[in-house]
Amino acid sequence: MTGHADTILTGDRPTGPLHLGHYVGSLRQRVELQQSCRQFILLADTQALTDNAGRYSKVTGNVLEVALDYLACGIDPARSTIFIQSQVPELAELASYFLNLVSVARLERNPTVKDEIRQRGFQRDLPAGFLAYPVSQAADITAFKATLVPVGEDQVPMIEQTNEIVRRFNTSVDQEVLVPARALVPAKGARLPGIDGKAKMSKSLGNTLTFSASPDEIHAAVHRMYTDPQHLRVCDPGRVEGNVVFAFLDAFSPDPAGVAALKERYRAGGLGDTALKRELEPLLQALIAPIRERRAALAADPAAVWAILREGSLRAREVAAQTLDEVKRAMGLAYF
Amino acid sequence: MTGHADTILTGDRPTGPLHLGHYVGSLRQRVELQQSCRQFILLADTQALTDNAGRYSKVTGNVLEVALDYLACGIDPARSTIFIQSQVPELAELASYFLNLVSVARLERNPTVKDEIRQRGFQRDLPAGFLAYPVSQAADITAFKATLVPVGEDQVPMIEQTNEIVRRFNTSVDQEVLVPARALVPAKGARLPGIDGKAKMSKSLGNTLTFSASPDEIHAAVHRMYTDPQHLRVCDPGRVEGNVVFAFLDAFSPDPAGVAALKERYRAGGLGDTALKRELEPLLQALIAPIRERRAALAADPAAVWAILREGSLRAREVAAQTLDEVKRAMGLAYF
């Protein structure tokens, strides 16, 4: 699915610490991808401000938190360039040129943005920056000449928008300056449900497990995990679909055959929720313990983490400045 | 109208050489204002691209032309900072933050932009960059903490938009970082009609006089100037209103009393168009000749002009970078 030469652009809006949902949906994959690809990981503070105007500290205060999560989960700054969007001003400059290549109508038609506008309840107060954020995202992707962008199914229109800009720009200057990107859509099942059974694990829903969770917190989370409300007695048959414990086992067990056997027993009746959860808990304890410890050790020396982000941002600037220079040259804006 | 401490931001979209309309509407005033104010003059190439996407050379090819016009007309790079918008990337970065402070609905309501959208015949293809250009203009103005912005009456809403952003930003960070600006609206009569009698002198209408006009071209332009089509015989009474020759005399004669006397004679009958034009032509020849000569001398050494623009752009960057730094600090985006 990924070639040796792929360059990856990925990242997160830093609006809160990450959690196991991110681990399954993206972090785990990034740790793998950094072995074979050139990977740029964006702490998208500027993008997060597009719908948090005025709530600056909600964003700025979480940059370090997310960086700690990255490093604790095994993203290696020697292999991946972790950088902060606002510290790479070339991205804003590139976006300003791209804004001329996209119509307002096209932005308003973007299905991802339409959904998000609805979710956020924006009406007449829709900030221009929010409507335009796909253009800013196109700048993020193209600045690094990314060829592969891991996204959820719902974000595929963003990559299409980016590639439209790439085509339009290249045509306008009659040169292949920018590079189109492919979406890397995760396999089904790469989305972890919340521990309450809701489809999405999300901080705002309070149904997450973070990388700072203590052994007791992990135990309590497993204890309150949603299973099958109809499964009252151990001997009753139980439902596997929508059962959060099985979703977690599918995501984290190193033994799929063992999980399949558990599913069979659960469906047939005779496997109780408590026994089932006892299968899961040690897996989660073993997964989170080393991450939590690394995270705590890193958090004890924030200056060292900031130094990593600073170095990553400088490295990212070099690459983005090179692309921006090519873009401006192609447009004839290199006067001096 | 202007205090000693005023900082001025003004400029032009470089889409063609300037002409006498610009001289009367702005250049003349800038030459005066640079004596008492700190003046930044923007060659707005980036802004010109918002409705010239893909037509890069129409913009980039005119940067030097407009700079020649500035210098030839007496704008002194030691007193005014002449700079190129695309060479001050801090402006794009500042605009990217301002985009979050303005709603799409507010941009769509901007009367100046509404008019311009109509003039350009934009429909569903309206580029996002064009709709957003008032935000970019707000960045231009505030980056230099300009207190005074010379604009036509039709551009006053742009200053209001800027001041809304100033207020909103300052409130959001609870600090007076940005400075509101006043519009400096020219007195009536500061708009020169086209030589054909149309209300506006404009390159696209072919009714201009440029600063490169030769003595013969000036003579021919005066000869074909629109007067009063009802004024057939010298002895007939003539109309002064709408008469281009009188508009030019009002704009350029150093002798208003003499012009008033001519108007009286013209209205009464007995002053022919040829005689009237003979009053005007020497004024225009005397005005344009030294400008034309300076312009030709400057054009012979383009490297020297580019050096002025480069130096001005660097000076502008320093000021804009300082403001941007204050803005980012106030938002908490100065991590390192």
UniProtKB/TrEMBL annotation, chains A, B:
One GO-annotated biological process of the protein: tryptophanyl-tRNA aminoacylation
GO MF entries: ATP binding; tryptophan-tRNA ligase activity
Cited InterPro entries: aa-tRNA-synth_I_CS (IPR001412), aa-tRNA-synth_Ic (IPR002305), Rossmann-like_a/b/a_fold (IPR014729), Trp-tRNA-ligase (IPR002306), Trp-tRNA_synthetase (IPR050203)
Key words of the record: Aminoacyl-tRNA synthetase, ATP-binding, Ligase, Nucleotide-binding, Protein biosynthesis
Keyword Ribosomal protein tagged: no
Domain of life of the organism encoding this protein: Bacteria
A Pfam match: tRNA-synt_1b
Catalytic activity: tRNA(Trp) + L-tryptophan + ATP = L-tryptophyl-tRNA(Trp) + AMP + diphosphate + H(+)
KW Nucleotide-binding (keyword) present: yes
One GO location term (cellular component): cytosol
Enzyme Commission number: 6.1.1.2
PROSITE patterns with a match to the protein in the record: AA_TRNA_LIGASE_I
Similarity-based family: Belongs to the class-I aminoacyl-tRNA synthetase family.
Protein name per the record: Tryptophan--tRNA ligase
Species of the source: Crenobacter intestini
